[in-house]
């Protein structure tokens, strides 16, 4: 306290605002030697400990030796009876626990403090003790912790319950023996103890659904005093209900519903939020929860209003109709002094309201756009995006609004959100295209973000040439060439070239403009200009579509690797073959499966602009496979199946997923296995495969030497594809084979002796789509003409099971595994015929194009034409739909 | 230091502080001995093997003792040395009924005596030949033979038989220690 006061004085003097600023780590550690002196000077030692904590929290790294030395010096302070000093020591122990060695030295001292008479020590000693203990030590202090859980001092009880939660991860088998004590603590009168005890109880049982249901039933009946505990119970219950098929009939649902009438507002809100977020609830059953949130909307407390409107905003995204009842109250919040609340209210209304209210709301929101933070501006932009998809006719209001937002001040994330939205609107609604492109042109006239400028220039190059009046974009693009940095100039040059390649009438003027760039100061800009000028001068459609419109469709990471290998190999007998480079696939971040709902929500951090060349999932696989000696001679990886196939039911003893990796003449099957039995270690794990077609030959297996409990491991099988190029499909029956060794679940120590066992897995099919990689052709017709009809095949099928054109289109894309071009995957719902254009590359580097004409009349009739440079390939692809 | 403490110091009223390190093999009775030396009301009934160390305090007529009671288990013995530097005296407890491990105790004593923080200093060492009540207990003379105590030339040492459960022999040892401090 004394020195706090002194700090204050320093502050007033203005001499030094933070006494700990610029602390030198080694000087502080030097000072720590003072701890060895007797008698101990508590005030001085507290000050030094504070410095150590400060240095650690500033992120400075302490080496093991220096940390250990400081730690042991600090243990001497246990001889002082000063309460403040002792409590500082606890804090420092916790901070150093993971850095210093032999920290168990303080075990007995802490045990003594936690059971001793000094109440000020007990709770903190428990927390420190749990930080330094390990599995073997824990057994020794177990009985003290069990006693502490039921201690009548609430802070002691809470400390041990929370520590138990922390200890549970590495020591589940010990902590689960404390259930009886935890149960007793749930009946405590103290609100925090009850909350923490329920938390521990749940976490011990959470993997046992039956036990969880018992827990819910027990505590829903015996009403809990602590509102925190009730909130916890609500979360447990809603998680439980999400795995239940019939929600509304469950008594657990009744509990949630009854919580809407609880006396604590916190509980009421928690229940309402849980109810509206239930996965399997019908919209009718939302009503009671919505009404409660509606009441909160007019609460005098801003937190409650904010919570309610935020939750309703989310509901409105999926179930706008359920929220319409709140429209009046939401209207009142439009002018709320808290702009965050106002923004959420308006964007909710935009989702629930009808078309006529849009103009009014947009006007309202524009009145205070300048007052809200970027984060909430993005919420507005998102609302506009969904609004445009809902009311396509309103696009001009929205477009104007978006363009004025583009002109306003704002950070990168905000501008990016706007540009993304405009692009989405353009893609979804062809009527909005001209206006949208116009706004974007205006934006790049004064845009400080290179990433956005290049992206828009790319879009202009793709969309501009097909618009009604392509020439009007040229000026905007050429201005970039004159005024901008090198990256933007290069993008502008490429964009211009696309106009030249696409529009014959503009070609000569484009050539003039590009020639002016031949003397640019930047290499990249000059190279591009030179390249395009020479291609365009040839005046040959095939050339310009192949090298300007379509561009390279290879994986950048793969290209780098292939070039590197080529340069390293000194023979250079053959020229570099672009066919050996794996094709481009979607970047990894787009493929990541969204994780399920987590127990406690965290706001997702805004994604930063990603690295220039993101390795795709397939690039990552390619690297992993290349590292395995048996696979080093297979050539470039052609295609990895996009989603792992599950070969086991969920919640079985062993979980196995399979990914297929197709190479030029081989397939590698990658089996990701998890052993969910904690009393077994599997060894020599492999999956034996039996092909239905004996031309598919098993070359070898790469077994997994050891598969301990809950640590995923991978085993591979290598299959050689048949000589006959037309035989590409096959079904494999699979068996997981391994040696089992029983082991002690707590220590993981296995028995000496094992025995062989096996486990039957689901079948795996290899389909035509596995041999095809998606490729996008910007100008499909040009490519179609270019490839010619030499190896053309066609046929007509009646697809009787299909009930709509949309469904048929989806299925065909899936069967063939090819890329829809010219947005032909979007079916116009008014029409009953459709043309689907698909492009891909077949294993071995053969270009394949497909044109399918579909007609709907009760069933779907399809006329399909396949073109490629190889007759066998055309035949195989055609057979995929048959 | 408060004014009163200072005054008390001048007048010789204030007791001298004394920092003692208590070591010895596990199960020899270190914690039990220290416990018995404490005032009756702060003694505990529940003595378990020590993990690491604990700090205890007790008084004799003229001294305040602060004792670091170390754990004697094999894997913690190498941690004793962290506390050598600050020790003004050492209590080394022997389980006189554990003939088998007397050699182990001697080994630990030798390591202590050779340690750089101890070797050159005139640190008094008090040996308790504990568990004297046990039938097969060795006498202090036998213990000191087995431990080779006669070879300790540069430090004052003393051995006495003790029973930590009854307290017998403990004051004898503490009195010797008090004398040593007063002499120094
Ligand atoms: N019969 C008898 N038993 C004793 C005597 N002193 C200690 N014990 C017992 O010996 C056992 C070990 O005593 P502790 O005091 O825990 O031994 P320690 O040296 O502290 O052991 P660590 O902390 O593991 O190093 C206990 O069961 C004591 O009751 C004694 O003088 N006579
Ligand atoms: Mg002990």
Automatic annotation (TrEMBL), chain A:
Q: Which controlled-vocabulary keywords does the entry list?
A: Cytoplasm, Cytoplasmic vesicle, ER-Golgi transport, Golgi apparatus, Membrane, Protein transport, Repeat, Transport
Oligomer status and interactors: Oligomeric complex.
Coiled-coil annotated spans: none
- GO CC annotation: what is one? COPI vesicle coat
Name one molecular function that GO assigns to this entry: structural molecule activity
- Known role: The coatomer is a cytosolic protein complex that binds to dilysine motifs and reversibly associates with Golgi non-clathrin-coated vesicles, which further mediate biosynthetic protein transport from the ER, via the Golgi up to the trans Golgi network. Coatomer complex is required for budding from Golgi membranes, and is essential for the retrograde Golgi-to-ER transport of dilysine-tagged proteins.
Q: Residue spans with biased composition (Basic and acidic residues)?
A: 1-11
Q: What biological process terms from GO does the record include? A: endoplasmic reticulum to Golgi vesicle-mediated transport; intra-Golgi vesicle-mediated transport; intracellular protein transport; organelle transport along microtubule; protein secretion
Residues annotated as domain Coatomer gamma subunit appendage Ig-like subdomain: 621-766
Residue ranges of every copy of the Coatomer subunit gamma C-terminal domain listed in the record: 769-881
Q: Transmembrane region positions?
A: none
Limits of the Clathrin/coatomer adaptor adaptin-like N-terminal domain: 26-539
Decide whether keyword Transport is in the record. yes
Protein name per Swiss-Prot or TrEMBL: Coatomer subunit gamma
The record's principal subcellular location, in a coarse class, is cytoplasm
| Spans annotated as Disordered | 1-23
Topology in membrane:
Peripheral membrane protein
Q: Does the keyword Hydrolase apply?
A: no
User: Where does this one sit in the cell?
Assistant: Cytoplasm; Golgi apparatus membrane; Cytoplasmic vesicle, COPI-coated vesicle membrane
The family note in this entry says: Belongs to the COPG family.
TrEMBL record, chain B:
Protein family membership = Belongs to the small GTPase superfamily. Arf family.
A Gene Ontology biological process noted in the UniProt record is: cell projection organization
Question: Which PROSITE patterns does this one have?
Answer: ARF, RAB
Gene Ontology MF term list:
GTP binding; GTPase activity; metal ion binding
| Protein name in the entry | ADP-ribosylation factor-like protein 6
**Main location (coarse class):** membrane
Entry keywords, A to Z = Cell membrane, Cell projection, Cilium biogenesis/degradation, Cytoplasm, Cytoskeleton, GTP-binding, Lipoprotein, Magnesium, Membrane, Metal-binding, Myristate, Nucleotide-binding
Q: Name one Pfam family in it.
A: Arf
What membrane topology does the UniProt entry give?
A: Peripheral membrane protein
Binding of Mg(2+) occurs at 31, 50
Provide one Gene Ontology cellular component.
Answer: axoneme
- NCBIfam families according to UniProt: small_GTP (TIGR00231)
Organism of derivation:
Desmophyllum pertusum
Question: Would you indicate the residue range of the signal peptide?
Answer: none
Q: Give the taxonomic lineage as stored in the record.
A: Eukaryota, Metazoa, Cnidaria, Anthozoa, Hexacorallia
Please, which domain of life does this record's source organism belong to?
Eukaryota
Q: Where does GTP bind?
A: 24-31, 72, 130-133
Subcellular location per the Swiss-Prot or TrEMBL entry: Cell projection, Cilium membrane; Cytoplasm, Cytoskeleton, Cilium axoneme; Cytoplasm, Cytoskeleton, Cilium basal body
């Amino acid at each position: 306290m004394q020195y706090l006061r002194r700090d204050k004085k320093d502050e007033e003097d203005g001499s030094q605002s933070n006494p700990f600023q610029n602390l030198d780590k080694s000087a502080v550690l030097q000072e720590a030697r003072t701890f060895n002196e007797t008698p101990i000077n508590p005030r001085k030692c507290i000050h030094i400990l504070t410095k150590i904590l400060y240095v650690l929290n500033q992120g400075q790294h302490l080496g093991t030796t220096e940390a250990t030395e400081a730690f042991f010096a600090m243990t001497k302070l246990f001889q002082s009876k000063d309460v403040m000093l002792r409590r500082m020591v606890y804090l420092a122990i916790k901070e150093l626990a993971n850095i210093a060695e032999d920290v168990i030295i303080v075990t007995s001292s802490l045990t003594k403090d936690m059971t001793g008479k000094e109440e000020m020590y007990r709770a903190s000693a428990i927390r420190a003790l749990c930080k330094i203990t390990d599995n073997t030590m824990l057994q020794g202090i177990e009985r003290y912790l069990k006693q502490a859980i039921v201690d009548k001092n609430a802070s002691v009880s809470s400390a041990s319950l929370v520590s138990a939660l922390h200890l549970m991860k590495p020591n589940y088998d010990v902590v689960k023996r404390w259930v009886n004590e935890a149960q007793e603590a749930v009946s405590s009168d103290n609100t925090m103890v009850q909350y923490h005890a329920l938390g521990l109880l749940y976490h011990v049982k959470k993997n046992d659904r039956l036990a969880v249901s018992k827990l819910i039933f027990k505590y829903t009946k015996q009403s809990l005093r602590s509102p925190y505990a009730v909130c916890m119970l609500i979360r447990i219950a809603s998680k439980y209900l999400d795995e239940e098929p019939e929600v509304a009939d469950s008594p657990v649902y009744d509990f949630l519903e009854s919580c809407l009438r609880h006396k604590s507002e916190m509980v009421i809100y928690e229940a309402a939020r849980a109810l509206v977020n239930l996965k399997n609830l019908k919209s009718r059953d939302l009503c009671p929860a919505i009404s409660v949130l509606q009441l909160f909307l007019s609460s005098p407390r801003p937190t409650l209003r904010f919570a309610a409107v935020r939750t309703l905003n989310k509901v409105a995204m999926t179930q706008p109709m359920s929220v319409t009842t709140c429209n009046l109250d939401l209207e009142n919040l439009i002018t709320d002094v808290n702009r965050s609340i106002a923004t959420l209210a308006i964007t909710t209304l935009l989702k629930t309201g009808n078309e006529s209210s849009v103009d009014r709301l947009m006007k309202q929101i524009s009145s205070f756009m300048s007052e809200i933070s970027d984060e909430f501006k993005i919420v507005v932009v998102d609302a506009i995006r969904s609004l445009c998809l809902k009311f396509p006719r309103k696009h001009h209001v929205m477009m104007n609004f978006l363009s004025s937002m583009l002109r306003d001040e704002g950070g990168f994330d905000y501008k990016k959100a706007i540009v993304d939205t405009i692009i989405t609107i353009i893609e979804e609604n062809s009527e909005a295209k001209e206006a949208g492109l116009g706004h974007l042109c205006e934006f790049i006239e004064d845009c400080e973000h290179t990433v956005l400028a290049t992206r828009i220039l790319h879009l202009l190059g793709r969309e501009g040439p097909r618009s009604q009046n392509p020439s009007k974009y040229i000026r905007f693009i050429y201005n970039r060439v004159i005024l901008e940095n090198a990256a933007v100039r290069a993008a502008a040059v490429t964009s211009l070239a696309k106009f030249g390649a696409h529009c014959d009438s503009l070609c000569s003027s484009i050539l003039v403009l590009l020639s002016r760039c031949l003397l640019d100061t930047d290499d990249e800009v000059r190279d591009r200009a030179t390249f395009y000028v020479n291609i365009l001068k040839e005046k040959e459609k095939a050339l310009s579509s192949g090298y300007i419109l379509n561009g390279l469709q290879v994986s950048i990471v793969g290209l780098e690797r292939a070039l590197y290998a080529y340069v390293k190999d000194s023979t250079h007998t053959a020229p570099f073959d672009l066919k050996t480079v794996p094709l481009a696939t979607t970047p990894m971040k787009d493929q990541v499966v969204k994780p399920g709902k987590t127990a406690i929500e965290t706001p997702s951090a805004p994604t930063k602009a990603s690295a220039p060349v993101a390795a795709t999932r397939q690039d990552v696989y390619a690297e992993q496979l290349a590292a395995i000696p048996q696979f080093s001679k297979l050539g470039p990886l052609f295609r990895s199946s996009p989603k792992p196939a599950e070969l086991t039911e969920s919640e079985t003893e062993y979980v196995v997923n399979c990914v297929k990796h197709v190479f030029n003449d081989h397939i590698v099957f990658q089996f990701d296995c998890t052993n969910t039995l904690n009393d077994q270690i599997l060894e020599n794990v492999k999956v034996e495969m039996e092909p239905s077609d004996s031309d598919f030959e098993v070359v070898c297996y790469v077994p997994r030497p050891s598969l301990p409990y809950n640590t995923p491991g991978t085993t591979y099988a290598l299959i050689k594809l048949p000589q006959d190029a037309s035989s590409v499909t096959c079904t494999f029956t699979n068996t997981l084979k391994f040696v089992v060794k029983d082991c002690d679940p707590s220590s993981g120590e296995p028995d000496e002796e094992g025995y062989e066992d096996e486990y039957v897995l689901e079948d795996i099919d290899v389909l035509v789509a596995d041999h095809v990689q998606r490729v996008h052709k910007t100008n499909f017709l040009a490519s179609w003409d270019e490839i010619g009809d030499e190896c053309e095949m066609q046929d007509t099928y009646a697809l009787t099971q299909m009930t709509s054109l949309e469904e048929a289109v989806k299925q065909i894309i899936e069967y063939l595994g090819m890329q829809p071009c010219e947005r032909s995957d979007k079916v116009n719902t008014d029409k009953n015929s459709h043309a689907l254009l698909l492009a891909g590359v077949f294993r071995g580097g053969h270009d394949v194009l497909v044109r399918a004409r579909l007609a709907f009349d009760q069933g779907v009739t399809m006329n399909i034409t396949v073109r490629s440079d190889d007759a066998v390939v055309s035949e195989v692809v055609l057979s995929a739909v048959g | 230091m408060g004014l009163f403490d200072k005054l008390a110091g001048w007048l010789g009223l204030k007791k001298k502080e004394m920092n003692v390190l208590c070591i010895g093999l596990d199960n020899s009775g270190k914690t039990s001995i220290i416990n018995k030396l404490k005032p009756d009301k702060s003694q505990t009934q529940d003595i378990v093997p020590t993990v690491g160390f604990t700090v205890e305090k007790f008084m004799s007529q003229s001294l305040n003792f602060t004792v670091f009671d170390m754990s004697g288990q094999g894997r913690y013995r190498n941690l004793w040395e962290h506390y050598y530097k600050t020790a003004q005296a050492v209590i080394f407890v022997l389980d006189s009924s554990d003939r088998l491990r007397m050699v182990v105790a001697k080994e630990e004593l030798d390591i202590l005596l050779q340690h750089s923080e101890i070797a050159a200093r005139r640190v008094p060492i008090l040996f308790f030949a504990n568990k004297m009540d046990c039938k097969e207990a060795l006498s202090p003379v036998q213990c000191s033979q087995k431990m080779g105590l006669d070879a300790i030339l540069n430090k004052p040492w003393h051995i006495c038989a003790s029973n930590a459960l009854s307290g017998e022999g403990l004051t004898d040892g503490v009195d010797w220690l008090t004398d040593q401090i007063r002499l120094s």
